[in-house]
Amino acid sequence: MKNIGVLAFSRIVKLLANVSKMAAYPFHYVFPNKRFTIPERAAPWWKSNRPTKVPRIIWQTNFTDKATLPVYLNYLFNRLMAPSFEYRFMITEARAQFIEENYPSEISEAFSRLQVGAAQADFWRVLVLQKHGGVYLDIDAHAVWPLGRIVKPEMEELYVTTRRGEISNYFIASKPDNLHIARISRAIQVNIENDSEKNIFELTGPGVFNKVLPRDQVRTASYRYTCNQGNFTNEYFQYIDKPQGKWTREQHKVDVVRKRDPIE
After folding, report:
1. What are the domain boundaries of the chain?
2. For residues 118 and 139, is the Cβ–Cβ distance under 8 A?
3. Residues in a beta bridge with 134
């Protein structure tokens, strides 16, 4: 019965989200330069004293903190679904600074060789979760049920699975110092150092998760009961201020991994 309730609720949210997305077209036609600021940090709306293994922190990132209406509504909805969670957000420059300040030089150097924002975000998300723990969500992703009920207090980690049953990385919940996240981080670092993949999906993205994670040892949940993408927003509203467009196109225009200098 609970799963039926989650599905019913998620379908209602999907309908309302898509209505708001359609309404955003005339809004941005009338106000083409209007943007909303996503905060770097926001306190929980109310605090819970109940202990949890996964810290109550939502992590998100984007190339800019200036969002169109659909992206901002997506942010607000996640806040509504996680009132006891702190919110933390980093733009491109902040990601690099975080890694430089918190990780050894070889990891920072590997990160600096990534030349596409999506690949940088892939690497950053596992590093920030390994350091602090919490729940990572893509900027276009939203919880389909209260986040505190999805990520239960006793859980040490949770990964979302797609329609095909594969693990994705647009939603990741993890405790700090997680062995599985450490393995993913190391695998990404090796891929960068070897420049072994040209496709971001396999270099830094979900392909790494599916190769590294032991499916019989990690907790997973279907996207239907966990987290959806692209209901509130879409590619147009996400990349309206980014001439390079989405990473799927950008990775064919530039080398994802910068070649080492001869003196390196």
Report:
1. 2-250
2. no
3. 174
| Neighbour-count burial of 59, counting CB atoms closer than 10 A to its CB (0-12 exposed, 13-18 middle, 19+ buried) | buried
Residue 57 pairs with which residues in a beta bridge?
A: 86
Give the C-alpha separation, 256 to 120, whole Å: 10
Alpha-carbon distance 167 to 219, whole Å? 11
CA pair distance 263, 1, nearest whole angstrom: 62
**Tens of pLDDT, residues 95-122:** 999 999 999 999 999 999 999 999 999 9
Distance CA 264, CA 258 (A): 12
Q: So what's the pLDDT on residue 260?
A: 75
Return the CATH fold of 2-250. Spore Coat Polysaccharide Biosynthesis Protein SpsA; Chain A (3.90.550)
> What's phi and psi for 61, nearest 5 deg?
-150, 160
Give pLDDT tens digits for 245-264: 776 777 777 889 998 765 55
Q: Give CA–CA dist 220/236, Å, rounded.
A: 30
Nearby residues of 175 by Cβ (< 8 Å), 6 or more positions away: 53, 54, 55, 133, 156, 157
CB 55 within 8 A of CB 157: no
Closest residue by Cα to residue 210 from 177, 248, 250, 183: 183
Which residues fall within 8 angstroms of residue 41, CB to CB, at 6 or more apart? 86, 87, 88, 89
